[in-house]
## 1
Amino acid sequence: MIELDPHSLVGKGLHRECFVHPDDPTRCIKIVVAGTGIEERREQACYAALARRNVSWEMLPRFHGRVLTNLGEGAVFDLVRDYDHRISLTLAHYVASRQLTARHRAALCRALADLKKYLLDNRIITMTLKPKNILFQLEAADAGKLVIVDNIGNSDLIPLANYSSRLARWKINRKWRRFERSMRRDYAANDALPGVIP
Ligand SMILES: Nc1ncnc2c1ncn2[C@@H]1O[C@H](COP(=O)(O)OP(=O)(O)OP(=O)(O)O)[C@@H](O)[C@H]1O
Ligand SMILES: [Mg+2]
């Protein structure tokens, strides 16, 4: 059984806690701490479907199965780190700061365009895109890419978009417009943001 140290907590959402894997610094273990775990089952089903379709994992951490820990069952994923080995911070962290947004303006602009293209090219349908569930992984001091760490999977009752590529495109574009709109609204006080999301 894997012993998780509270000091190795990477982040915490509404449902899960994320820890550095004690035996592998390139991976993390997520433990469900609230809710029914239904989101997690949906996420894993979606991951399995993506793996069958052979999608690129460039902007999605790989899933490495389940493990037993002292805090219960956990799900193992790639841990996203920057070029200097620090654990990557969320897009929310960057856009909450006028200074960080301005400093990384060009890299953020490019990374957002690349993420949208990645989702469309690989037909990856996410649930609501939120900046707290997307990490900005710095690959150099002034370059980076975005990685989605949560809310993968189609919540529709009948996931038609899983079968029709035109419908998938339409859905991804709609999710993206909503994502941009919510960022403009939630970070309206950041006057550097229009340089990233016009
Ligand atoms: N693969 C990862 N690499 C690095 N940090 C991560 C990774 N996955 C999650 N994190 C960090 O842990 C936090 C919580 O993880 P996650 O979003 O999966 O939890 P959650 O409870 O499902 O979130 P939500 O509140 O959106 O439902 C993230 O916001 C992020 O800061
Ligand atoms: Mg989350």
## 2
Amino acid sequence: MEQPVTLSENWQAFVEKCKNCHACALADSRQHVVIWRGGVRAPLIILGEGPGADEDRQGIPFVGRSGRLLDLLLTSCGFKPEDYHICNIVKCRPPGNRVPTREEAAACRPLLKEQLLFVRPAVYLLMGATAFRYFTGSEEGISRARGIWTVSNKCHIMPTFHPAYVLRDPSKKIYLWKDMASVRQKLEELDLVQPLQRPS
Ligand code: SF4
């Protein structure tokens, strides 16, 4: 009798498909296709813009300075790696760290949609203007949109600043931290992570 295909085999097949993708011109200059880090299935998805130089070199999202800030904030909010899945709007580095074009984002969207079927997140943290615009279709500025929950298809969506922006303007760090704390609270309310012990 044929063995049932496990999530892990399906996930591996998906990863291979991403690694072989040439659906847009970003494939020509990449070193690695940058797919995810964290849990494959996770209650929280953290979506950024696209890989930078460090990510392209290592094939892992958010491993440079922005990633270190993100990890610091995730840890301070009590998250464990199995609680989240980190990925980007595009999986290959735009040359010179430019913003991915609308066409590149559209070319990568089928892979992102497929990825979401594995992750099955209840909560989305959209980091930065590009992730917010390309994921929601909204033209509103991130400074106005951040910190405000919306619900779509029963998923809770929180836009916030990108860590790279916060590194350029540290006065914005408090907003990123507040939004991540709000995400933690939401996941606790949904009973998807253990409540943190907070001082009374
Ligand atoms: S950015 Fe996405 S669509 Fe473009 S080549 Fe890479 S994986 Fe494929």
## 3
Amino acid sequence: MRDLIKRALSADPLAIAKLITLVENGGEEKIEVLRELYPFMGKAHYIGITGAPGVGKSTLIDKLISQLRSEGSRVGVIAVDPSSPFTGGAFLGDRLRMQRHATDPGVFIRSMGSRGALGGLAKATADVSKVLDACGFDYVIVETVGAGQNEVDIIKTADTVILVLVPGLGDDVQIIKAGIMEIGDIFVINKSDKDGAQRLAKEVEMWMEFGYKDKNWKPPVVMTIAEDGTGVDKLVAEIKRHVSYLRESGEIKIRRKSRVLEEINLALEEVLQKHVNRVVGEETLNNYVDLILEGKLDLYTVVEEIVTKIIRT
Ligand SMILES: Nc1nc2c(ncn2[C@@H]2O[C@H](COP(=O)(O)OP(=O)(O)OP(=O)(O)O)[C@@H](O)[C@H]2O)c(=O)[nH]1
Ligand SMILES: [Mg+2]
């Protein structure tokens, strides 16, 4: 293990991949890996990119990688697809487009599906992000499909959240449905080679008048054509402006604090669940459910009984 960690810290891609697999598999080894890596974490900038299926997130990330690499930064990418069981080395469909960077040792790309996610995809993504952070990647980018609660949970703890929209998807619907306007730090109107891009950008700006999560940062709206790279330099500039803003305003500390808090809660949940499984089996749990349904016991009494069992044993 020591040797593996040493190699991963010196940017050996095979060793990094192995560590990530250990982390995904969970259990004692995961905890050991994360513990050993802990002193090396905290340097990366975490970026979350989300948007409806097919809006061009992967294409955009592919171009972001090129730009950030040309500046000498190392980039780690986690492509999360909650609807896919595939994980690890199995690359999800069109994410192949990012694969041209796979032979570059300064780039690490990992796909994650629901299978590599004991204890929740959000937690698994956070853990893998931390491995990449410790292994010296300057940017850790997480791509998630869609805009449901799952996705929000996965990216809400990123330092910079980028929401990607495209014209012609039923613009306002897209935004309202997303219900995630408030978590975006930067808005990208991709496929701006298509009709309606300007109008969508105006609409987004109008929506912004309803407020954003951080009153000192008005999320910029960036027009891109990911396909040919148009506007990607602007996007990188806005990301950097956001990084500076977060640092100078002290907001980064607030975000990281809430990230650690969230992580403590998730880790507690994981440990608690283990204890619950230890003291009550499925059958007992089902009995409790029946008793509650029959009105013989109330929920809180059941919880108290379980907690008492955990404490006593
Ligand atoms: N016209 C146009 N097409 C684009 C642009 N960017 C991406 N596309 C195309 O849109 C399609 C989807 O691109 P992806 O990058 O795979 O989109 P995605 O959001 O990562 O898709 P999922 O991961 O499946 O949700 C591909 O066929 C791209 O070539 C653009 O700026 N303009
Ligand atoms: Mg994609």
